[in-house]
Design goal:
The chain has about 270 residues and is α/β, with parallel strands linked by helices. The protein has 2 domains: about 180 residues, Rossmann fold (3-Layer(aba) Sandwich), CATH 3.40.50; about 70 residues, Trehalose-6-phosphate phosphatase related protein, domain 2 (Alpha-Beta Plaits), CATH 3.30.70. About 40% of the residues lie in helices and about 20% in strands. It contains 8 helices and 12 strands. The strands form 2 sheets. An 8-stranded mixed beta sheet has the order 5-4-3-2-1-10-11-12, sandwiched between helices. A 4-stranded antiparallel beta sheet has the order 6-7-9-8, with helices on one face. Helix 1 packs across helix 8, helix 2 runs parallel beside helix 8 and helix 4 packs antiparallel against helix 5. It is globular. The two termini are about 25 Å apart.
Length: about 270
């Protein structure tokens, strides 16, 4: 692990450094239902120490609502990009949303009502209304029900003019706006003053939605360090990430190494 870290060390020595971390499947283990997810205490401590480093900003990047992503992580001093980029939570707890999503909460609400009714008899199906986006979880659903969940969710989304994306045992509904984790992370990094010749970005994620960030960050900020966390209990996913880790503990070790390195620069 540390051999891989040394290969990217010089890029991570730059300032400002923006550390961007997906939550579920990256910091927190994948669990049966969304409300059960928690970032382990040891990982929380590592991320909290990293957030205290000089010229370093830590951002949680999640498909969850920003407030919910922060609840799962519970790390002081970090920013949150939530709802796949449609909203942001600052370290003081203030939440702002992208002006372009104004009004789409009505369509999301209508989709939620329809899907609640559609799947109320399906054991294990969870419809999660996050105001600006919606998730239908089917991780613990009988496999025979999954095709209907996917097809009906897709049909209802299209009727309401919403986009549909697939994830790990989940179907996501979003407004038809060109915002994703990648575009949101680029905008955030640029606000911090990161450019192709100044500062750097580190991004770690585990799902298809994180691939948007891997590709778009490297295209706009070529020295971005991208890491995919590929846990062994999930099927292989072709990835554009620079590094691939097989355990959540490997990422924690890498973040701890970055913290030590940033600390030595301050000495």
């Amino acid at each position: 692990m540390r051999e891989s870290a040394r290969a990217i060390g010089e890029r991570l020595d730059r300032s400002p450094l923006c550390i961007m971390l997906d939550v579920d499947g990256t910091l927190a283990p994948i669990v049966a239902t969304p409300e059960q997810a928690r970032v382990p205490d040891e990982t929380r401590r590592v991320v909290a120490h990293l957030a205290q480093c000089r010229d370093t900003t830590v951002v949680l990047v999640s498909g969850r609502a920003a407030a919910d992503a922060w609840r799962v992580a519970d790390v002081p001093g970090v920013w949150v990009i939530g709802n796949h980029g449609f909203e942001t939570r600052d370290p003081a707890g203030r939440i702002t949303s992208d002006d372009r999503v104004s009004g789409f909460d009505e369509a999301i609400g209508r989709a939620a009502d329809a899907l609640y009714q559609e799947f109320q008899g399906v054991r294990g199906a969870i419809v999660e209304n996050k105001r600006w986006t919606l998730s239908v979880h089917y991780r613990i659903v009988d496999e025979r029900e999954v095709p209907r969940i996917i097809s009906r969710t897709t049909e209802i989304a299209r009727e309401l003019g919403l986009r549909v994306l697939d994830g790990k045992k989940i179907v996501e509904l979003r407004p038809p706006i060109d915002v994703n984790k990648g575009t949101a992370c680029i905008a955030f990094a640029e606000r911090l003053g990161v450019t192709p010749t100044r500062g750097s970005v580190f991004y770690a994620g585990d799902d298809r939605t994180d691939e948007d960030a891997f590709r778009e960050l490297r295209a706009s900020l070529p020295d971005t360090v991208t890491v995919r966390v590929a846990t062994v209990d999930e099927p292989p996913l072709a990835s554009d990430a620079e590094l691939v880790l097989v355990k959540l503990s490997d990422l924690r070790e890498l973040l701890d190494w970055i913290t030590e390195r940033r600390g030595s620069l301050s000495g």
